[in-house]
Design brief:
The protein has 171 residues and is an all-alpha fold. 77% of the residues lie in helices and 0% in strands.
C-alpha cells in the first residue's frame, strides 16, 4: 500500500495506482476508502470493467442494490458481457428492494445468456433455474437445474463443486 500511496501523492490520477490501492483497500474490508479510488480508475478504459466490477461488489456487499444495478448497466452499455448480465439477472431475482425485483426481466436475461453460451455455463443455468422457479415454471426450472448440475459434475473444480452442492439441495 505505501508504494501506491506514494505514487498517488505525486500523481493523483494514476490509473494503476488508483485501481491497485482501491482493490487492496477493498480486499481488507475498507470499501469506503476504496470507492473513490476505484471510481477514478473506472474513468479510464484499461481499468474500467475490473474497477466497476469491484465497485459493484462493494455496493452489493453494502446493500446498495440500486447502485449495483447502475454499475451493471454502465458495463453493459459498452457491449455484451454474459457474466455481468448473469449478475444483473441474479440481482433482479434477489433484490430486497421491491422496485428492483423484476422476475420477467431476469427470466429474459437468463434465457439470453444461456442461449449465447450454448447452455454450457452451469452458473447461468442456475440463474435461469431460479428465475423460472420464481416465475412459477417448475418443470422448466427443474430441467435447467438438472442441466446445471450435470455440467458442474462433469467439470469438477471448486466453483462447480459449490454449484453442484447448491443444486443438489434444490432437486
Amino acid at each position: 500500500a505505501p508504494y501506491w500511496q506514494a505514487i498517488l501523492a505525486r500523481e493523483p490520477r494514476h490509473v494503476a495506482a488508483n485501481f491497485s490501492l482501491g482493490s487492496w483497500l477493498y480486499e481488507r474490508g475498507r470499501g469506503t476508502a476504496a470507492e473513490p479510488l476505484l471510481k477514478e480508475a473506472a474513468r479510464h478504459e484499461a481499468h474500467r470493467r475490473p474497477a466497476l466490477l469491484r465497485l459493484a461488489q462493494w455496493y452489493d456487499d453494502s446493500g446498495r442494490e440500486q447502485e449495483t444495478a447502475d454499475i451493471f448497466h454502465q458495463i453493459l452499455a459498452t457491449g455484451d458481457d454474459l457474466e455481468v448480465q448473469n449478475k444483473l439477472a441474479w440481482l433482479y431475482l434477489t433484490a430486497h428492494d421491491e422496485r428492483l425485483r423484476d422476475v420477467p426481466q431476469a427470466v429474459k436475461i437468463a434465457r439470453e445468456i444461456c442461449q449465447a453460451s450454448e447452455q454450457q455455463q452451469p452458473f447461468y443455468l442456475e440463474t435461469l433455474s431460479h428465475a423460472l422457479e420464481q416465475q412459477g415454471d417448475t418443470q422448466a426450472a427443474l430441467a435447467a437445474a438438472r442441466r446445471a448440475h450435470a455440467l458442474a459434475k462433469e467439470r469438477g473444480g471448486a466453483q462447480d463443486r459449490l454449484l453442484r452442492e447448491n443444486m443438489r439441495t434444490r432437486m
